[in-house]
Specification:
Number of strands: 24
Number of helices: 12
Helix content: 25-40%
Largest sheet: 12 strands, mixed
Mean pLDDT: 93
Structural class: alpha/beta
Strand content: 15-25%
Distance between the termini: 58 Å
Length: 515
């Protein structure tokens, strides 16, 4: 029997097992000491052994057995268990492995790009937040950033107990979300962070699904050309670098944020934008592990493809659910924050269109939800430091929808519009105890247009609890209204419970060149 202390498990497992006989049972990194198994779910445990070898798995008074297939792979499914622990997980074949300190609780995937990856130590009050991160029943594991067109079966990593030292470098949004759940539910929490800064949504989707739909052909075309002749990567990089230098100089002159320098030429094919790369290299090794759901913070890298995101994002969620095989697990995301300079006049915005695509996803898929943070961004930084309130708004969805706690959780949303005496009267859903203007009595953020499609800032007045009347002086025939439709809008309408009104528009006027 191989039984090692939790501190030495990962190193010994990686170093020792490959040197043992082929008969030895092996486990992927998702199964290590300090792990959390999802409560009230038929959790799966899997690994490798000799073909035809009998393998049994025991935990908490139950034992399940199977025989490996010709490929040496094995999987057992455990009976659902209640929250608790610690337990020992024993895997028996021609050898025995024992994983100690296994808890049963709530497990969540924390995924997306840099705003999910952003570590606790760099968040608001990160130093003090790290000092108080003493939660022995919160467990965390991070998946390394590997981009691959070949599905990966494993990764290098291990579960860790939440301490000031381990929490500091973990996802801030993930940590704050998990802490809120732990303190509210009083059960163990497992957090799996597989985020990758700068990643594109298409990199998180199986390649064959994109190739099966003509609408994604433009995304795939440039990659297929590069894949056919990798030497073109150098030329493509030089072109991107030149464009970045021009944009950077202009941004500096305009005193605007400078975007990140593009990746080097050899990084593209194994990077975080290539379709399917992150699905295969980062997500795939965790698929099948018991989870309650996923939280997601991504979209900044897809703002130039906002229209396509309307289909791409739901496709990603559905594909994850299909491959996980545990039904329509909960999937909650963060709508893009306010960012870039405020503009004097209303106009078009790719960031607003991406937010719209995110909101649309709630009506396309069940068990989904959106945390609106249009008030938490920073104009000069694409990475707002206030991760605490971002996580709290995500946690509201989980606590209300998954754990049946009676708290407000959804931001007010646009419902309907009618024209009355030269004004537009808007109705809203999910208003809680009503709408209110924050900080000042005058309502801001609304713009109205006539048939000429030219928007002007509008005046607005609350009517009752759930209606707002908007108008523009001198415009007798208004036809469309927008709210917080900008990169960095200034709207101030909230529910009385403190959740900001979801940005929206009543028109669907296409902009030239919008994908």
């Amino acid at each position: 029997m191989i039984r090692v202390s939790p501190a030495k498990w990962a190193g010994l497992l990686v170093l020792a097992l490959p040197q043992l006989a082929n008969a030895d049972v092996k486990l992927p990194a998702i199964f290590t000491p300090h792990m959390v198994l999802q409560r009230d779910l038929k959790d799966r445990v899997w690994g490798w052994a000799d073909a035809g070898e009998k393998v049994s798995v025991s935990i908490n008074g139950q034992t399940k057995s199977t025989v490996t297939g010709k490929d040496g792979k094995w999987t057992v499914t455990l009976d659902p268990m209640s929250a608790g622990g610690p337990h020992s997980l024993s895997i028996n074949g021609k050898n025995t492995l024992v994983i100690d300190d296994v808890l049963i609780g709530e497990v969540w995937i924390c995924s997306g790009q840099s705003n999910m990856q952003w570590n606790l130590g760099a968040a608001n009050d990160g130093d003090m937040e790290s000092l108080t991160a003493k939660y022995p029943k919160i467990r965390m594991i991070s998946v390394p950033q590997v981009g691959s067109q070949e599905p990966q079966a494993d990764f290098k990593g291990k579960w860790e107990v939440c301490t000031p030292a381990t929490a500091r470098d973990f996802s801030a949004v993930g940590y704050f979300f998990g802490r809120q759940l732990h303190e509210t539910l009083n059960v163990p929490i497992g957090l799996i962070d597989d985020s990758w800064g700068g990643s594109a949504c298409e990199a998180w989707v199986r390649r064959d699904l994109l190739e099966a739909d003509p609408k994604y052909a433009p995304i795939l075309a440039s990659w297929k050309e590069l894949e056919a002749d990798p030497s073109k990567a150098d030329a493509a990089y030089e072109k991107r670098l030149a464009a970045w230098k021009v944009a950077a100089e202009k941004a500096k002159a305009d005193k605007k944020p400078v975007s990140r320098k593009p990746n080097g030429p050899q990084d593209d094919l194994k990077g975080n934008h290539r379709p399917g790369n992150l699905y295969n290299g980062v997500l795939k090794p965790t698929i099948g592990y018991g989870i309650r759901g996923a939280i997601w913070y991504q979209g900044e890298s897809n703002t130039s493809q906002a229209r396509l995101y309307r289909d791409l994002f739901p496709l990603m969620i559905k594909s994850w659910r299909d491959d996980w095989g545990i039904g329509d697990f909960s999937f909650y995301w963060v709508q893009l924050a306010d960012y870039l300079p405020e503009l004097a006049q209303p106009g078009d915005s790719s960031w607003a269109e991406l937010r719209e695509a995110q909101t649309m996803t709630m009506s396309k898929l069940p068990n989904t939800g959106e945390a609106v943070i249009i008030d938490l961004g920073e104009s000069q930084d694409i990475h707002p430091r206030d991760k605490q309130n971002v996580a709290k708004r995500l946690a509201r969805w989980a606590l209300a929808r998954d754990y049946k706690i009676n708290i407000p959780y959804q931001s007010p949303t646009y419902k309907s519009m009618e024209k009355k005496d030269g004004k537009l009267v808007l109705a809203f859903d999910h208003i809680g105890n009503g709408l209110k203007a924050f900080d000042v009595s005058e309502i801001s953020g609304f713009a109205v247009a006539g048939k000429d499609q030219k928007f002007a800032w509008a005046k607005a007045k609350l009517v009752g609890k759930d209606h707002v009347e908007v108008w523009v002086e001198g415009l007798s025939d208004p036809v469309a209204v927008r709210y917080d439709w900008a990169d960095n809008p200034t709207g101030n309408l909230y529910s009385i419970e403190g959740l900001p009104l979801t940005p929206f528009r009543t028109d669907d006027w296409n902009r030239k060149g919008v994908k």
